[in-house]
Specification:
Elements (H helix, E strand, L loop, with lengths): L7 H6 L4 H4 L4 H12 L6 H12 L4 H9 L14 H13 L4 H6 L7 H44 L32 H11 L3
Helix pairs in contact: 3-4, 3-5, 5-6, 8-9
């Protein structure tokens, strides 16, 4: 039994600021960006196009600006905190010499190949991290179901056929551990990705 995946709409409505949006990566980012900028689910061709650009290291701010140019752009995107200011700054930087430093050095929008490689790596780390967390959640759900099934079987067994158990252990199994030494949830992949971006500035 697997957990019900979150609705893309619930993910989009939970985004209050541009920082929340930039915490997402790969397909998750594209799906949320479509819902925020265009107010509709992403179509297969659009998803493939934008995901490919993310994996090549293109800026997420640049992709948001590209979506904003679509005739489908919905005014409700302005409700996301600091999104308007970020896009206005990005556009201004492209039109003036004053913005050269931002476009050259900023980890999120810089155009140098080194920065694009870092963004591609950051996106991949985010994508793999999401898949790992989803896999761990599914495994833990299956572990809980198996635990409950074994307990039910033990409780339904006749006493004469039941295996010998120590006093006080009848009808019970060792509790599930909520955390393990190598629990993937202990890895702050998002923070690690930000540290990579800050450290690898060329």
């Amino acid at each position: 039994m697997s957990q019900t995946p979150k609705s893309p709409w619930s993910t989009a409505t939970a985004i209050a600021s541009i920082d929340d949006l930039l915490e997402l990566h790969d397909r998750d980012f594209v799906e949320a960006a479509y819902l925020i900028m265009l107010r509709r689910p992403v179509d297969p061709s659009g998803c493939a196009y934008f995901v490919r650009r993310l994996r090549l290291g293109y800026s997420r701010v640049a992709l948001l600006d590209q979506m904003l140019k679509s005739p489908e752009a919905n005014p409700q995107w302005e409700q996301v905190g600091r999104l308007r200011e970020t896009l206005a700054r990005y556009r201004a930087a492209r039109r003036s010499l004053k913005g050269w430093w931002w476009l050259y050095n900023d980890p999120e929008v810089g155009k140098r190949r080194a920065l694009m490689r870092i963004r591609a790596l950051h996106n991949e780390v985010g994508r793999v991290g999401h898949e790992m967390r989803a896999a761990v959640a599914e495994l833990r759900c299956e572990q809980k179901s198996m635990h409950e099934l074994v307990l039910t079987l033990l409780q339904s067994m006749p006493e004469r056929n039941a295996p010998q158990r120590s006093p006080g252990a009848a009808g019970s199994l060792p509790p599930l551990h909520d955390r393990t030494t190598y629990d993937v949830r202990e890895i702050d992949l998002s923070r690690s990705g930000h540290n990579v971006l800050k450290a690898l500035r060329f």
